[in-house]
Amino acid sequence: MITNDISGLGLIVISGIMLGCAVVPMKYATKWKWENIWLLNTTFALVVIPALVVLRSVPNAWEVYRLARPSAVVIAILLGFGWGIGSILSGIGYTLLGVGLGASIILGLASSLGSLIPLVVLFPSRLLSSSALTLYLGVAVMLVGVILTARAGKLRQAAREARAAVSKPDLRSFGKGDIGIGLLVCVGSGVLSSMFNLALAFGDDIRVTATRLGASPMGAVNTLWFPVELAAFAANLIYCGYLLTRNRTWSSFMTPGGLSHWLIGAVMAALWMGSISVYGLGAGRLGQMGAVAGFPTYISMSIVTANSAGFVTHEWTGAPRAAYLYGLVGMLILVASVVVIGIAGQAVH
Fold it and tell me: Can you give 18-55 as a three-state secondary structure string?
């Protein structure tokens, strides 16, 4: 039992690190525009890999969608489309604020709203329970963390403008956009990204139907994820297609020497999808404690890893000491809020 707990927690830590690193390779796709690498990433992450997984794990998936409640399928698609818009905003937000600050705000908001909204809609009778009050406390703590990380970003940006600091020439520029717009984009992304968890909650009849038709627990969840991911891809395709046409950058996919960028897009997708799969394995080994201890650990490690990656890739070069201090304290508070939200959310549900 202890061995399973240790190995399960270890897998969840690894999955969080993978999620925190998923967007970092995009910094090295310097020969393409944002829309090129983002569309390639989402094509692999939301269509190619999920389709292969569903075909392998649930060969009769089409029958599942035919027999599931139509309302569950529709709401999964609509929420998936909203999550897709949040995904677009996350890609823009990472560019404006950097991987570290962007991930802290987006993941903090997504995890809190992903727990809070199902509570309000599905369990209104528990809104004043002790677990619900703990959840509200976690959200309040999360907001403090967001405010502190925003302050860190403002200090960093002011120092960069004063010193005309620049990133290394071999990296795509991250964390150099307008701090106000960046905050708005990341907050919007965090709100919309919570729709992924909402789709899993409100489209659950798809999973139940798949289980009834003989799918394994993991296969049933994959069946639920697939329409959500396809809808998210549709949102990304519309926006990236618009940019590719407006900026005339479709031809960039064939840029000489751009083969590495195709690999970068595949690696980004593999890290993101791999993080979900590894998290599922780890949570399974923790048994009943998987949902309670697993999710907070997963998101917390993602936040820590994303901030570490931002530091290593020179997002904070030239920033004053106060910016580092605000950023570190804000990150730690966000991690603490995710732990509180995760535990309280599972107790409520």
Answer: HHHHCCHHHHHCCCCCHHHHHHHHHHHHHHHHHHHHHH
